[in-house]
Specification:
mainly beta, Lipocalin, ten-stranded antiparallel beta barrel, two-stranded antiparallel sheet, 3 helices
Length: 292
Amino acid sequence: MMKLRLAALSTVVCFPCMTYGDQKVDLNSPEGWAMAFMTTSTQNLGQTPPQASSFKEIAISAELNSIPHLTREQQKIGFGGFKAEDLNKSPAFGRLRATIGLPWNLSAEMSWTPPVQINGSRPKSLWGAAVSSPLISSEKFAVGMRVFLLRGGVTASVTCSSDTTRFEPYTPENIVGCVGESNDNLKMDHEGVEVFLSLNNPSELRPWVSLSSSYLDMSVAIEAQLKAGSERAFISSSGSVQTISVGLIYDINSSSSLTLASSYTPLEAQRLSKLRSRDDFWNFRAGFLFRF
């Protein structure tokens, strides 16, 4: 009887999702929040404050960011907060960077995330760019600004994951009747500006803090095979988020440094029921930088 009820409910729920086509949702809707949370995990924030550099001076770096683990209740974002999706694909996100000094005390940066597949998810043409410059510099502190963007996305089996398809369709573990892993493509485009305040001191440790504002332009294209038929949907959302970051640079020598940082982005989702856990994004970042 339970299986029959779930099958009937899934048919009612899935029928509109196979026919509604394009849909734009608010940033604080469950679907919009999930896209913002995933996009925020890839934010193209600065690894270090803008610094004065010589023309054609080159630096390369690598950075690894943590991605917070979401509870099952937080993952209930499908159909306006009814269905749980598999959002815990990877515990970390990484990127490689290359920076070159330009005239007028500017620096240009390019970044790229290798398309390494982890737990059914893989970055897809995920690259970023930025231009930065120090604005004020004194013996005790410095102020700098960085303008950045990121383009690309990730492909993942979120709607119908491998864990879901192990169960029989229309059971509590496979409520919508997935019969194969889905092909979901999330676009994570964003651009923004970041302002840094750093302390100048003669020691090897240099602390800094930054405040950024980013405009997110996101969408997800869903392709899933269900027992009731094929689901094809396109959901988009956009909006602005603000992020505060604190970091520390440890200079190993004149040409190499270790970087540590933590970033916090307030996010909110209007859910069917209030959760005890918060929906904000908070992560840690670690990297290594080498100057030529």
